[in-house]
Amino acid sequence: MTSSGDSSSSSNDESEKQLASLPKGDGWGLDDNLCLYQDFWVYSPQLKGVAEFQNDFEAFDSDILLSTLPKSGTIWLKSMAFAIVNRARYPVSSAEHPLLTSNPHHLVHNVEYYQSFGTCNSLSDFVSTQYSADTSRLLATHMPYHSLPESLKSHTSSSKIVYLCRNPKDNFISLWNYLNKRGPNITNPFPIEKAFDLFCNGISLFGPVWDNVLGYWKASLENPEKVLFLKYEDLKKEPKSHLKKLAEFLGFPFSVEEEKGQVIEDILKLSSFEFMKSLLVNKEGSVNGLGFENKIFFRKGEVGDWKNQLTSSMVERIDGLFEEKLRGSGLVFES
């Protein structure tokens, strides 16, 4: 008879073998290599959370999942969604609002990083301790649509998925700058030319970018009641109309009284890049076990900053690449 301890050890050995067999990719100058798991790239320490989320997570009808690629507006989306969903519990104008004293990553957790936000040994334990069953669970991920838990994607579930994407050129620049503020890259920055080549070859965190974006784009076309697809640039152009659209989609629409008052404007201010960057909590401290200083999540938040850092040949290459990858999908990014 095999003891439970032996079974656990055998399972761990099998997981180690599976990890060792995964194709490896350049980690953009960081200590860990990227691993190719189910056709997307992820750092090896995150594989446990990724696999548990996919295999063990059971969605409630009231669940809300926020999905983004890294550095494509994640904090902005988390801030807006948190303020919308919790405005009855936390009035937006309150001096005690959690967004004033907590980094958005502490309020809306990326499930694949759960090990960095506490001492729980499993994702199920983490979710049960962090979220109340009588409120909408607001979760986040960077995982591609095809690898999400089936219970979340099911057409019979009323859970909601919101995806925010960004122009690939700005996404690349933001990601490269961000990773150069971490680990060995701080004193020895990873060359932009090498990072750009990896990005265009599909080797980037939770990429290839075009696969990640297209997965959610197609899902939003097939089931618009289930998946809301947003662009960072559109939010910048028309923040009020897109905030209202987000609130309605999430099932927390603004009342007539709220629209006549300052609620929408207050949420836009509270979640704005400039305001969030100015808060002491986002200038100091770090994100728990991740060890990232809060301040590195806030750089410029601009549209078109790529023009200051990409060469003309880089622009020509990335524009041609995404024109090819997105052809026939109906999805277009402005040049």
From TrEMBL:
Gene3D superfamilies: P-loop containing nucleotide triphosphate hydrolases. The keyword Electron transport does not apply. GO terms for molecular function: sulfotransferase activity. InterPro entries: P-loop_NTPase, Sulfotransferase_dom. Residues 61-330 form the Sulfotransferase domain. It is an enzyme of class 2 (transferase). Residues 1-24 are annotated as: Disordered. Belongs to the sulfotransferase 1 family. This is Sulfotransferase. Keywords: Transferase. It comes from the Eukaryota. Its EC number is 2.8.2.-. Residues 1-12 have a biased composition (Low complexity).
